[in-house]
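Hey team,

Filing this mostly as a record. A colleague (T.K.) asked me to run one chain through the structure pipeline before their review meeting, and I want the input and output archived in the tracker in case anyone asks later how it was produced. No errors, nothing strange. Just documentation.

Input sequence:
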Amino acid sequence: MEFKSVGVVGAGVMGAGVAQSLAQTGHQVVLVDISDDVLANAKKEVRNGLRAFSLFNKKETIDHKASMERISYTTDYERLAEVDFVVENVTEKWPIKKEVYGRIDTICRPDVVFAVNTSAISITKVGGITKRAPKVVGMHFMNPVPMKPMVEVIRGFHTAPETIETAKRFLAEINKQCVVVEDMPGFVSNRVLMLTINEAAFLIQDKVASPADVDRIFKTCFEHRMGPLETADLIGLDTILYSIEVLYESYNDSKYRPCPLLKKMVDAGLHGRKSGRGFFSYE
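Output structure:
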């Protein structure tokens, strides 16, 4: 195993999923967040995630106890001095990302690769605020991370070819496939997905159809496993809004204007599954 110890920064839904994927494939994980409450919740998410993974993957045997013990939960960023690779998963807000990279760049060894788990923020921009731009690569994991076999890998302007190869080896160790794409805001998946979800929110705002009927059309007519609104609830409506706002600011194109209903729902605390209510109720 090339990457024995991995730092995971940000213990929200994506960070917990990445930590679980690493732990269940035998990696030691240092999971860092600024909040003890978020870390405690992440521990529950990992435990539940391991159960769910075993339920849906009967052919793959996982030692739950050993996997749980491979993850260290900490608010001490200095623990990242010991890791071989970093996956950053903090919220899609540039000021927060900027602060985190300024911090971890001084703590981690110079040879450590930083993988930016983002759905929209420029990898080139992240690399530019570090002293290791050739070692910064995008790694857009899909939610739920342990259940999704594909990862979008993004090559920033300064990303070195050997960093792309390192990223591929890292993903292979956690049983993930990848597609390498170039760095433009939203990359491939979210330039399409966020527009679809945003337009679906406009359909609800305009009272064209109910959320269930919008999703039913996609599932029945196009054989999608989930409709756009169910997908939005799974990702988190706050994450959707941040992503569409980044696309709007990046391209200055009105087609990315956020739906007012989506903004209103986020302001009201309706963030989807993680809050118990979004376009659908989970309470």
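Quick notes for T.K.: The chain has a mean pLDDT of 95. The longest strand covers residues 150-155.
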